[in-house]
Write a structure and sequence with these properties.
Layout lengths: L2 E6 L4 E7 L6 E8 L3 H11 L2 E8 L11 H14 L4 E6 L3 H11 L4 H4 L2 H17 L3
Parallel strand pairs: 1-4, 4-5
Antiparallel strand pairs: 1-2, 2-3
Length: about 140
């Protein structure tokens, strides 16, 4: 059984989370600048056994696509061509950034660290994967 990786894709940065090999525990992995995400994922997938990659799918509250939805789908399609052995899926990601900020606040993280958008991106990726796995 391989790990499942999730991506909170953004214009500037992508938060990444991953499960343990038994797919029970979700952990924040990293935040990568979007311009470097493909290279990072290709390298990571060589080092670790990844069974599936789950992309957060940005949708409006009415279910319609956002300005970023097609970009995420296109990136996913291009990456899948380079990693055909890995399954790809999507998880609707509405309000994950809001949930991430709440979780960070409740965790007692100091105020200066709470301003770190890279931390919010990582925690958003964790929430996407937890929701995908039904942990919420």
């Amino acid at each position: 059984m391989g790990r499942i990786l999730s991506i909170d894709y953004g214009k500037k940065r992508c938060g990444i989370a991953v499960t343990d090999p038994l797919q029970m525990i979700v952990s924040a992995l990293d935040t990568i600048d979007t311009e470097n995400i493909e290279e990072y994922l290709l390298s990571y997938c060589k080092l670790e056994q990844i069974e599936k990659i789950v992309f957060g799918l940005p949708l409006h509250t009415d279910g319609n696509e956002t300005h970023l939805t097609q970009e995420v789908k296109t990136f996913c399609k291009n990456l899948h061509e380079k990693l055909p052995q890995i399954k790809f899926d999507f998880q609707e990601e509405s309000f994950t950034s809001v949930k991430a900020k709440e979780a960070i606040l409740l965790s007692g993280t100091p105020k200066m660290k709470r301003r770190d958008k890279r931390l919010v991106d990582r925690i958003s990726a964790v929430i996407i994967l937890q929701e995908y796995l039904g942990h919420y």
